[in-house]
Write a structure and sequence with these properties.
The protein is an alpha/beta fold and about 325 residues long. The protein is about 40% helix and about 15% strand. The protein contains eleven helices and nine strands. It has a nine-stranded mixed β-sheet with strand order 6-5-4-3-2-1-7-8-9, sandwiched between helices. A hairpin with a 4-residue loop joins strand 7 and strand 8. Helix 2 packs parallel to helix 3 and helix 3 packs parallel to helix 4.
């Protein structure tokens, strides 16, 4: 059954490369701006939550868009929302074609993270994946996160989530100038704390710059050589679909860092869209081009989609802002 779900996701992505669908099949949704960490590579924590989409509005969003196959529920810190379990239950219940349901957490609220994961798994589940952020060794992680005790909390959260049957959980390291090149040291310290840890349980991504999402314009880039070394450390031979995505990412990122240009055709507004906590849609988390607000469109992504052809043409031509 799970392989069939992944095949349907791959089919949607393949079809979208030939012909733009009537509506996006992937939604990246920022559930809140609220964050209880003070990260040096991200300034989301400086935002103050205001008039964010309620759980009732998010239920409407899911109900109006049943063709979504991939939901990435980000933040802010999603677990700061007390209603996160209800939101995840609604997503599983109202999105019958959902294949991947992912949300990241900084691991600061272990009980809430576990409760949210259990809620996501209650319905006949899609593939539920949680990423617990771990930016390095204890010293590096807490320096970057600006929160004493953050490392121990993240390790506890990961350990508890790993015990849940049916859940895929990984440690996620965002590579920046401050921590690039330290993947092995991070892995070894985490493995000592956890007792066991496989390389496949650590995923890596390169920090991105964004004015409307991260608020980190002017961030100094990580060293391409250090990033390449970290990505090589995380290499695995697994044939799992998420591992294959990681492998493709690992192979393409060094080319992007060297040229500043994406080595593949951008998928923004071809099959995916980003929506912020107030319902404003953007092509992605990095292009600062508001497309409209879902509250004005009865929460319909298809209605939004019909207005974005010019924006997609600009993405295809490399005219991203």
């Amino acid at each position: 059954m799970r392989l069939l779900r992944y095949a349907s996701l791959a089919g949607a992505a393949l079809a979208g490369s030939v012909r733009r669908p009537r509506a996006p099949w992937k939604l990246t949704l920022a559930s809140t701006w609220l964050c209880n960490h003070r990260c040096t590579h991200c300034r989301i924590w400086e935002r103050r939550p205001d008039d964010e989409l309620s759980s009732e509005e998010l239920e409407l969003l899911f109900a109006r868009n049943p063709s979504l196959r991939w939901l990435d529920l980000t933040g802010g810190e999603p677990t700061t929302r007390a209603d996160l379990p209800d939101i995840l239950r609604a997503a599983s219940r109202l999105l019958p074609q959902l294949v991947l349901l992912h949300f990241p957490t900084n691991g600061s609220l272990p009980d809430r993270a576990v409760a949210a994961a259990r809620a996501a798994l209650e319905q006949p589940p899609p593939q539920v994946i949680l990423t617990v952020s771990l930016e390095g060794t204890r010293q590096v992680h807490e320096q970057m996160r600006g929160t004493p005790g953050a490392w121990d909390a993240a390790i506890e959260t990961f350990a508890r989530l790993r015990e849940l049957r049916g859940l895929s959980v990984v440690l996620g390291m965002t590579l920046t100038q401050a921590n690039a090149g330290s993947a092995r040291a991070c892995f070894e310290e985490a493995r000592r704390a956890l007792g066991r840890l496989e390389r496949s349980e650590m995923h890596f991504n390169v920090a991105q710059e964004s004015s409307h999402f991260y608020g980190n314009e002017g961030m100094a880039p990580a060293s391409p050589e250090a990033v390449a070394a970290d990505l090589a450390f995380g290499a695995t031979r697994s044939l799992h679909p998420t591992a294959l995505l990681q492998r493709s990412y690992r192979e393409l990122v060094p080319r992007y860092l060297a040229t500043g240009q994406s080595p593949i055709r951008c998928g923004s507004l071809a099959g995916s869209v980003y929506v912020d906590p107030q319902g404003t849609a953007y092509p992605c988390i990095t292009e600062d081009r508001p497309l409209g607000n879902l509250r004005d469109l009865d929460y319909s992504l298809e209605a939004l989609w019909r207005t974005t052809r010019d924006a997609r043409a600009d993405v295809e031509a490399g005219r991203c802002t």
